[in-house]
Design a protein that fits this description.
The chain is of the alpha/beta class. The protein has a five-stranded mixed beta sheet with strand order 2-1-3-4-5.
């Protein structure tokens, strides 16, 4: 008889997104993403951080307030964009698991890349202009999105 308490695909891929988020050096927001094909194979992963070659200790600011050029918002790459750009193969027709609902800029990238579904953990920016624009674009372009509903399982990693 097979084991019954194994991870579902949604649990597995959201766990990968959560682990990916732990790579982020952002002191306020750690976001992870995992792109999966129709065969439930991981195509790519990403997390929010500085672009490659942009030193996140020397060059990167992690400030949230101040003039735009003095904040992280001018420089950080979001997890979704990193996952798309990190992929060695096209992501058209794939699903995206992400710990935070995509902003409008990431929604544009997801649409252009051909992502067919977004499964998200948190929608903490619901009803903001960016979030509303994101949902509008995803709806118009026929991209499904759904909230991942945790079942309360706890995974312990001893690394």
């Amino acid at each position: 008889m097979k084991r019954s308490n194994y991870l579902s695909w949604d649990e597995y891929f959201m766990a990968i997104a959560l682990i990916s988020a732990e790579r982020s050096k952002d002191p306020n927001s750690q976001v992870g993403a995992c792109i999966v094909d129709d065969d439930n194979k991981i195509v790519s992963m990403g997390y929010n951080g500085a672009p490659i070659g942009y030193d996140d200790d020397k060059d990167m600011t992690w400030e949230r307030e101040g003039s735009f050029l003095d904040t992280k918002y001018a420089y950080v790459c979001h997890s979704e964009l990193n996952a798309i750009l990190n992929s060695k193969i096209p992501v058209r027709g794939c699903k995206l698991y992400v710990t935070l609902f995509p902003c409008n800029e990431c929604a544009k990238a997801l649409i252009q890349a051909g992502i067919k579904e977004v499964i998200y953990l948190s929608d903490k920016y619901d009803k903001t202009d960016s979030n509303t624009a994101s949902k509008k674009m995803l709806d118009v372009c026929g991209i499904k999105y759904r909230k991942y509903e945790p079942i309360g399982r706890e995974l312990k990693l001893n690394i």
